[in-house]
Amino acid sequence: VGSEMCIRDSIGTAYRAKGDLEKATKVLEEALTVFDTQKNDGPKGSIRNGLGLIYQARGDYQSAMKVFLEAQGYFEKMGHEVGQAIIINNIGRVYHDQKNYNNAITNYKEYLRRSQKIPMEKSIADALNNIGVAFMDAQQLDSALFYLEKSIAKKEELDIRSTLSTTLNNIGKVANLKGNYEQAISYNKQALTLAREFENKKDQAYILQELAKSYQNLNDDITAKSFFQQALNLAETMGDVQLQYNSNKGLYLSLIHI
Question: Residue 59 phi/psi, 5° resolution?
Answer without folding.
Answer: 85, 10
